[in-house]
Structures are given as structure tokens and as C-alpha cells.
Amino acid sequence: MSQLFEFLLRQGDNALVLGHRMSEWCGVAPALEEDIALANTALDLIGQTQLWLGYAAEVEAAGRTANDLAFRRDAYDFRNMLMVEVPNEDFGRTLMQQFCFDAFQVPWLTALTASSDTRVAEIATKSVKEAAYHLDRSAKTVIALGDGTAESNARMQTALDYLWPYTGEIFADDATDQAMAKAGVAPLPSSLKETWQKTIVQTLSAADLTQPDSTFAHSGGRSGMRHTEHLGHMLATMQVLQRSYPSAVW
Amino acid sequence: MTAPKEWPLWEVFIRGQHGMSHRHVGSLHAVDAEHAIRNARDVYTRRNEGVSIWVVEAAQITASNPSKKGPLYDPAKDKVYRHPTFYDIPEEVGKM
Fold first, then answer.
1. Does A37 contact chain B (CB < 8 Å)?
2. Closest residue in B to A135 (Cα–Cα)
3. Which of A19, A153, A178, B68 fits A45 for a cystine, CB–CB 3.0-4.6 Å?
């Protein structure tokens, strides 16, 4: 498997898995306006997925399409970070999860607009505007809920404490990251940690939330070595149609 | 858990393109003005409808009283001379 293919799977799978998680709120979000906003975000992410996985399929050149990659791979073939696959639990965790992702995604995609790979640069240029809006919305919602009632503050703190050990994986460079950095395709994720940390600190302090002190980090999502048990359940729902009726089309 | 409070209602106005005026498109709930702008973006501009959004809290709008529509509007009905329809418009002016 080429390193570029691996990199593109990571890009596509992050967007796909988080996009699917967001879409799970469709029709059941706490307010109609938030419902539509989450559905919009989900659709943005699925749109980005089509671009990343479409390019991945071309790079692989094995006759697979973006749809094959999304719907015919099993959990151990996914390359998303663990943070995006954990269950929604409540609206607070979903927004905290999205915020932690967006705070990375904006500087990351901004850097990718200068990628040596033109296709990567083009996809990033299109996606970064969407990501900027997602970050604006998720950060302000985190602040509104964190700095809200005693209950909303407690829920946001619980969400942050739960998600925190999953954030370390974002910045754990590995061989694929090194290869991409060497080729000028993408910066090392670790080089963006400071920028991410700044956004996190600013937002958490405005939200009256406490950054957990632990540095323990789960890993294994980006390499596919060890996903959480939640991903398989999510894929079972997401992929059921293509699994039951392979190659079904509209 | 206390019963959730209803968010205030906001009226949304969107300018479709530069040079046009803002038009009332509907209403939504939001906790404050900034939140209302974000919600308006997500609810009312999904299909590329706008270049500018105004929101105003519905409670801030003072409306005329429908039961007074006789005294308010009827007197204008028989004052046709207020309409500029008694002029001959030169052809070169074109459509007005």
C-alpha cells in the first residue's frame, strides 16, 4: 500500500466517520436549528469524503471507487483517528468532539492548500472554508454550553474528560506522516500541535472548562491497528445496504 | 433537571444579491443575536440564497394593529392624486 494512499484514506476516513456520527443527529437534535446545522456539517464532511476517497481510489488504481472504499471495507481497514468514531452520547460530547477536530482541521487544511500534490491542495482549498465555519460554530457552542447552566457545564466537562485521551493521537507522527512531510504533501501533524493547543486553551477558558491534566493518549486508529469497539457497530449501520445488496445503485 | 427554557424568536432578513434589499424569509429560535445569525446561515442560506443576513428579535418589532386598519389605510384609498399617474412619460425614458 503506497504511503500517499494511506494518507488519503486517513483524510477521507476522518471526514467519513465524523460525518456519519453527525448525521446520526438528523431528526433527533435538541433544537430544529441545531438539527439542520448538524446535518449541514455532516453533508459538508461527506462531500469532503467523496473527494479524498475518490482521489485515494485513483491512487490505488485497483479498480475500486470512493463508494467501494466507504462501504466495502471493514473496521480494521479504516484509518480515521479514534476521536471521531466514539459514540455521540449527548449533544455536548458531539459538539466537543467536533470542536477538538475542527480546531485541528482548520490549520491542517490551511497547510494542505500549499501541498506539493496539486489534487491534495485543491481538495484542501475547497474544504478549508467549510472547516472554518464548522470551527466557528462548534467553538461558540462549546462556549455557550460550558459557560451555561451548572448542568450544561458539567456535561461539557464530562465530554472533555472523556475525549481528551483521544486527542493525543492527532499529533503522533508515524512513518506515513514522515513520508508525506518529506514529499511536501503535508506537514507533520505534530507541527500543528501548538496552534491547536492555543485554540483549545482560548475556547476552554471562555467556556469555563478545565483542560484535563493527563497526557495519556489512545492510539491505533490512524494506523488501523486498534479501533475502538464502536467503529464496527457504526459501520454495520452505515454499510448495511451495500453489504446486503452489493452494488445497489439509485 | 429543570424544564428547558424556550429560546427567543428571531426574524430573519436576507439580501439575495448586491443591490437588492433585505427580505423577510422566516423566523427561528436562538439564544442571542450571533447564534441567530449562525442559525439563519444554516437554515435559510443552504442553497446559496444570500449575501447578507439581518436578524432582529421578534419581540423588538412593533407591529400595527390589524383592528385599526380602517382608520390607518382607508383614507388613502380615495386620494388617487397621490399616485403619479397623471403624467405623460416620454418614450425615450423607457420603463419606469
1. yes
2. B38
3. A19
Name B57's bridge partners: B10
d(CA A33, CA A38): 9
Measured between beta carbons, which residues in chain B are less than 8 angstroms from residue A136?
A: 38
Note whether B73 contacts A: Cβ–Cβ < 8 A. no
Q: Give me the residue spans of the domains in chain A.
A: 3-244
| A136–B contact, CB cutoff 8 A | yes
Inform me whether the C-beta atom of residue A137 falls under 8 Å from chain B C-beta atoms: yes
Q: Is the pLDDT of residue B2 over 80?
A: no
**In this predicted model, what pLDDT tens digit does every residue of A185-241 receive, in sequence order?**
999 999 999 999 999 999 999 999 999 998 899 999 999 999 999 999 999 999 999
Residues A3-244, CATH architecture: Up-down Bundle (1.20)
| Three-state secondary structure call for residue B56 | strand
Q: Residue A76, Cα to own-chain centre: how many angstroms? A: 17
Q: Provide Rg for chain B, Cα atoms.
A: 20
Domain B9-93 classification at class level: alpha beta
Flag if B34 and A137 touch (Cβ within 8 Å).
Answer: no
**What are the sequence ranges of the domains in chain B?**
9-93
